[in-house]
Automatic annotation (TrEMBL):
<keyword id="KW-0288">FMN</keyword>
<keyword id="KW-0808">Transferase</keyword>
<dbReference type="InterPro" id="IPR004507">
    <property type="entry name" value="UbiX-like"/>
</dbReference>
<dbReference type="InterPro" id="IPR036551">
    <property type="entry name" value="Flavin_trans-like"/>
</dbReference>
<feature type="domain" description="Flavoprotein">
    <location>
        <begin position="3"/>
        <end position="188"/>
    </location>
</feature>
<keyword id="KW-0285">Flavoprotein</keyword>
<feature type="binding site">
    <location>
        <position position="167"/>
    </location>
    <ligand>
        <name>dimethylallyl phosphate</name>
    </ligand>
</feature>
<feature type="binding site">
    <location>
        <begin position="102"/>
        <end position="105"/>
    </location>
    <ligand>
        <name>FMN</name>
    </ligand>
</feature>
<comment type="function">
    <text>Flavin prenyltransferase that catalyzes the synthesis of the prenylated FMN cofactor (prenyl-FMN) for 4-hydroxy-3-polyprenylbenzoic acid decarboxylase UbiD. The prenyltransferase is metal-independent and links a dimethylallyl moiety from dimethylallyl monophosphate (DMAP) to the flavin N5 and C6 atoms of FMN.</text>
</comment>
<dbReference type="Pfam" id="PF02441">
    <property type="entry name" value="Flavoprotein"/>
</dbReference>
<feature type="binding site">
    <location>
        <begin position="11"/>
        <end position="13"/>
    </location>
    <ligand>
        <name>FMN</name>
    </ligand>
</feature>
<protein>
    <recommendedName>
        <fullName>Flavin prenyltransferase UbiX</fullName>
        <ecNumber>2.5.1.129</ecNumber>
    </recommendedName>
</protein>
<feature type="binding site">
    <location>
        <position position="37"/>
    </location>
    <ligand>
        <name>FMN</name>
    </ligand>
</feature>
<keyword id="KW-0637">Prenyltransferase</keyword>
<feature type="binding site">
    <location>
        <position position="183"/>
    </location>
    <ligand>
        <name>dimethylallyl phosphate</name>
    </ligand>
</feature>
<dbReference type="InterPro" id="IPR003382">
    <property type="entry name" value="Flavoprotein"/>
</dbReference>
<comment type="similarity">
    <text>Belongs to the UbiX/PAD1 family.</text>
</comment>
């Protein structure tokens, strides 16, 4: 059964994680709402060569082209559009993933400060007790980062840092990305075969 997920993209390095997750969720037949902070738009341009400048319709078209999908399966709302459906608990999605998640975004979510639609949607997930997964991408971590992560974890947020594993013997950058994306899919309860599990057979 198709579900509705929100994917939040922030200004931390690692935009490829968010877009690879979008690809897999769309391939599985789910519906997405993509939200991006202004710093995320700059990082996406630098790391992926994709421009997400313009009004909502223009950006939605660019995303659909990049992800090879249609408007029926993907929605996009600007960071300042607090009238978007996902800003309300009455239209809360099944789950939200912020990937990658910057320390600034994580801190504002932990403090209940909603300066953008992305942060408001995360706040909605918390108040509605819906699954919220954050994929922090920062190193090294200071005490503030760790305290904010602990605070959110105690609220029920799943903290899934962008840490690669090597037991599946990755051969390419794509293998490392798929490991992380596979772990996110596991947390969402979505069947995936993106990496060989510990003690499992090689993927065909």
């Amino acid at each position: 059964m198709a579900k509705h997920f929100v994917i939040g993209l922030t200004g931390a390095s690692g935009a490829i994680y968010g877009f690879r997750l979008c690809e897999e969720l769309l391939r599985a037949g789910h519906r997405l709402t993509v939200l991006a902070s202004q710093p995320a738009i700059e990082v996406i341009r630098e790391e992926l060569g994709l421009s997400l400048r313009g009004d909502e319709a223009t950006v939605r078209t660019a995303l659909c082209r990049y992800l090879q999908t249609t408007d029926d399966t993907l929605a996009y709302y600007a960071a300042d559009n607090l009238l978007a459906p996902v800003a309300s608990g009455s239209a809360a999605p099944e789950a939200m993933v912020v990937v990658p998640c910057s320390m600034g975004t994580l801190a504002r979510i932990a403090s209940g400060v909603s300066t953008s639609l992305l942060e408001r949607c995360a706040d909605v997930m918390l108040k509605e007790r819906r699954p919220l997964i954050l994929v922090p991408r920062e190193t090294p971590l200071n005490e503030i980062h760790l305290e904010n992560m602990l605070k959110l974890t105690r609220m029920g947020v799943r903290m899934l840092p962008a840490m690669p594993a090597f037991y599946h013997q990755p051969q390419t950058l794509a293998d490392l990305v798929d490991f992380l994306v596979g772990k996110v899919l596991d947390s969402l309860g979505i069947e995936q075969t993106l990496f060989r599990r510990w003690g499992g057979k090689e993927q065909s």
